[in-house]
Design brief:
With 205 residues, the chain is mostly helical. Helix content is 46%, strand content 6%. The protein is built from 8 helices and 4 strands, in the order H-E-E-E-H-H-E-H-H-H-H-H. Helix 3 packs across helix 8. The chain is globular and about 40 Å long.
Length: 205
Amino acid sequence: MIGYTPPVWLLFALLIPLASARDLYSYVSPNGTVTLTDSPDHAGFERWWSDPEPGRYLPNGVPMPRLDRIENLDTFDAWFLESATEEGVPAELLKAVAVAESRMNPAAVSPAGAKGLMQMIPSTGAAMGVRDLFDPHQSIRGGAAYLAKQVGRFGTYPLALAAYNAGPGAVQKHGGIPPYEETRTYVARVMGLYEHFRDNRRVAR
């Protein structure tokens, strides 16, 4: 069972005040492509994470995102469960990654070239056996395999998530969660969502 070592708890506690520091925006183009960014360049982008539910917070103090606005929130539960069983990571953690990465949209594309539900770059997807990054089933399986690999390497969920976001080299270099605002915010958000799903909205079984 994965647990938190005291240094990770200490680092993670420092993340929480930063968890709403960066706004995330999404835009659906006329052809259906979804773009995710923290630097929108036109008025068509919708701000979503930093427009939280008033007075509601995730278990770790991060503002509660408007999950009710996510159309596919429960659509892929069977595949999260399947991959959780295959890779030994909680289905709720995989679902939390998908929400934070793509707002649960299989057509999402980031400016950095990450694609699909789990926002994998082509080289990482290929290494995990993903042929089509926009296929949600393949994306979940590939993302789960990659996350499980990082859990095995670093030993805790927060560190594995940091590696998922910033790369394992950055975690290794800094001996923990890298001092990047984006990564610290990301880890806090995903861990908060994971705890919320685990305790209040389990993946359908």
